[in-house]
Amino acid sequence: MGCMMASKGTFKPGLFNIGLNIEKKLSSHYLNITRKKLMYDLGIAPIYIKPAIRNLVAFILFHMDLGRKRARLMLEQLIVDYPDDLNSLADLIYVYKEMGREKDAGKYKMQLDSYKDNPLCQARSILGQANALTYDWADDHNKTPKAFLKESWRILSMGDNQTEQVIKATTLIVEAYKVLKTIPETAHEKKINEKEKAVERFEKGIEKLNELNCSKEEILTWEHKLAIAHGRMETWRNRNDDCTDNRIQNFLKSLEGHSHVIDSLISVKNLEEPLKMYLAKSCIFFAQLYTTRRFSKPCIDHLSENLKKKIENLESLVDKAMELWPDGNTILIRYGRMKSSKKQFLEAIRSYNKSIELLPDKDINWFAYASRRDAYYDYSKELIAKKCYKGNIDEYLRLAYKDAEICLQSRCTQFCLLKMVEICFERARPNRHRDIKFYCQNKDFVYEALEILHETLKKRDINKDARIYALLGKYYPFISEYRKSLESIKMALELNKWSGKYPQSFSYLSMSFICFYDESKDRNLLSEFRYMLKEAKKRQCDKWVTDALKIINTNFPEMLSDLIENMIEWDARGCEDIVNEILQSGFSVRDDMRERFKMKLQEGNNQESDINGPAEIQVLETSESFEYDFFVLYSEKDKEWVNFMLRPQLEKYDDVINFRGCFPSRDFQPGERKLDSMSKAIDKSRKLLIILTPNNCQNKWIKLFSDVCILSMIKSKAKDKVVIPIIRESCEIPDSLQSNDPIDFTKKNDWDRLRMALTVNMDSTFELETKMSALRLRYFDPDEEEK
Questions:
Q1: Dihedral Cα 182, 187, 189, 193, nearest 10 deg
Q2: What's the CATH number for 628-786?
Q3: Which residues contact 583 (CB under 8 A, 6 or more apart)?
Q4: Tell me, what's the pLDDT at 392?
Q5: Are 48 and 218 in contact (CB under 8 A)?
Q6: CA 556, CA 570: separation in Å to the nearest integer?
Q7: Is 55 in contact with 15 (CB distance < 8 Å)?
Q8: Domains of the chain: which residue ranges?
Q9: Contact 703, 710 (CB under 8 A)
Q10: What tens digit of pLDDT does each residue of 157-174 get?
């Protein structure tokens, strides 16, 4: 950075210039917890990094409610103690400008200019920025797209839609889209980017300190921090399922960094307290990092002889750490986590207990409570797996639940919420046999788990976290909510692209289908289940299909017979592999089915004309009433995706947000000319959805119908009619749709944006083109088209 990084721009001191995510205005509660932890660290930190910590504390105070005055006073005192600290000067200038005190800002600007070219000041400023970037900030958002959507629907449902109501509802939708755009693709990628910036700054700052021949102690302090930064980046790459060389390199650099600190300090006699602390931390971090990570043997074989020697003597490193800093809560926690990774849970719990006794503050020592929670829970799970019920499982789960509550009161992270969900589910004592009887002893804990999951969805961007939907699908059957379970698991599978990240999900999907079918006797469920089996086969998840068929054959053979009949009747060719697998697996099926299947294959497949009957959907009365919110144009080959994925996401999303769609297979009158039916449907529909796949784009009739539909929309007098292309599979977009921004489902299943686009029902006088532009959806102006 700075002069040392001319190719990347001029170096800018100050924490307001490095893009910390704290700018999104986190809750004062969370910021206060971080401040308390930093103040604790400040008390035991060496003098070299005290300015960096104090500056970060002031930066946090600035973002807290009523904390700006305290931040200013702290920065002023910091500059008195360290007049050449560039970050403090830059941050104080920023604070004064925010307060409108330009004269005071100018005074400190002169002081900053007098030091900004000093190489040592630059190096320490860069290191202070790197230190700030190593911290993990919360990802919660007070306002979510879902909240905006629900509020807009509530307004539109109040009665006759006056212009004011439509304006207010539309504004909420546009705000929802803006929030959606500000949320990064994944929190993991954001964390990795921050850690990459931290590593870059640490390396540049340390390089400059070496050039300036600074003290060995100061350089080693920052090298220890750099090793931790590499370890944290490897951790976030691991959470992001990154198994590439990037992650391995971070792992090796972290090991090498801690090894260098150990080699430099371990032979020094009479170490000062701060350096003794860092030597102890490097010893325990090295041991824990190697113990808890799992890499391939070739990776380990390429380690240097020095690293291999330390790995062979891990226990001695751990003993050295405990000897140097026996009352250090960091050492005790890391020691405990090492023991937990070796499944020595009781010893780990004793280590966590000692850490909490020494530092009982749940905010400062939150990590100890969280680690003890995990140890209690993992130990109870191990006892359950071994069927060792003498180990007082309920007591360990109760203690895990108690620590989980403490964690939620302190730092309510997504991981804490999901861990509490798992603990609640285990406390419900579910039936763990491999049958479909969803039974548990205490449903109250299941309800609590579901409540937390829905709360988690509110705190996160909707439709992004597959794990949450997988858990919802797992827990819903225990309260007999089978339909919700099916939709949740389907959502989880779509979000993680059927990657197999949650291997039990398809089994729960199968069991929920069985229970739902047994309860409702709804034969439409067979077509839906047939679609899911075909999708699994298509995505080469053969084992999922085999396991699902075994579950059905074991628990409900009557449904298996009905399923085969459904496949033979409606899609024998598409389900040929699945039917052959059933017939060859020795399952009990009627002999006549084999002959019928062969005959059907010879005849060719009949097409299913109507899968689901009309649903009872809430219809919004707007200023210009339409019978349908949207009309869907799609190829017959994409019908199952439309019926079983798109329709539930739009027509049956939840109790508040739902739409009325017009589907040709369901809503067209038999015997009527298709072009006439489409013309009528478009007149009755507010939006037109066109599903784009290779099947669709290559079909000359679909192209013709598409052109007719678009022309009808253009000629329509309704100003809020919009054509929305939905790219389901990669294909060449037709010329008639080139001017429309599509919703691309090949990159992500962006149901949120689709719902927002469908919800925008605006009066023609209300900045129509501006609002449509905010949603990146092209508005067709008939006059413009004629020109």
A1: 80
A2: 3.40.50.10140
A3: 589, 593, 594, 597
A4: 85
A5: yes
A6: 22
A7: yes
A8: 1-136+189-200, 628-786
A9: no
A10: 665 556 677 777 777 777
